[in-house]
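Our preliminary data section would be incomplete without showing what the modeling component actually yields. Below, a chain of 110 amino acids is followed by its predicted structure, encoded as tokens that our downstream tools consume directly.
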Amino acid sequence: MANTADTTIDGKVINVGYTGSGDDWAYTETGITKALLVRAIIWLPSGADTLVINNEGNDGASIVHWQASAITDEKQIEFGYPGLICKPYIDLTDCTYVGLTNTKIIFIID
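Predicted structure:
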């Protein structure tokens, strides 16, 4: 499958969106090879969606497992000082999206 994750980095902000269904997303798509120091994760759902972010692959420990009831049901988690050291991974088979191209995941890193 073609890579459908659209990843951009602007300073300490990583934005993950999708152009279609298909690929999972790993933090290495940012070009960063070491673990991330995550300060916060923000999710903008596309509707009644489910988002699962694991650490170090699909079999890793769950970082977040969120369910949204509507497009306005934004979720956010902030990790206390010094943040969460992790290697975020999103397996699309664990997630459900009403409109995949309308969902966005934002990582605030340090």
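Residues 5-109 form a domain with the Jelly Rolls fold (CATH 2.60.120). The chain has one domain: 5-109. Preliminary results of this kind motivate Aim 1 of the renewal.
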